[in-house]
Amino acid sequence: MSAEGAAVLYRKTYLGGAEPGRFSPGAGPVALDLDGWRIGLGVCKDTGVAEHVADTAALGVDVYAAGLVHLPEELEEQESRAVRIARACDAYVVLASFAGATGGGYDRTAGVSSIWTADGKPIARAGTEPGEVVRAILG
After folding, report:
1. Which domains does the chain have, with CATH numbers?
2. Which long-range contacts (CB under 8 A, 24 or more apart) does 77-80 make?
3. For the whole model, what pTM was predicted?
4. Is the per-residue pLDDT at 19 higher than 90?
5. Is the pLDDT confidence value at 1 over 70?
6. With contact defined as beta carbons under 8 Å apart, do 41 and 14 qualify?
């Protein structure tokens, strides 16, 4: 954000459900530089698309960060994606996973925001309830 207003850093590349009727996809993976770290970004469905992960890895990221929402019964898939992304990018993975009800068919969500090492091991995890925070010192 600047005096001119907010800037769009990344737009979701792979749309799902009713999204294509309402939104247009972003141009593809990006990495932003922040305090010496290269951070690749993803949104929800992007995390499950091998091409997106590979293209983000090619940007030489130190961290892959994504926001997502899954149903509770999809938690295993969320966690397997984190491991695949960590290994493909050789980078930390930070998943901000929605907890609580969102509407639109998500009366319950998986939650469990988490941080993973580059070799696919979880180092910090939240629970399933709204308001829980995850932190780790990366180095």
Report:
1. 29-125 (3.60.110.10)
2. 77/48, 78/110, 78/112, 79/112, 79/114, 79/122
3. 0.93
4. yes
5. no
6. no
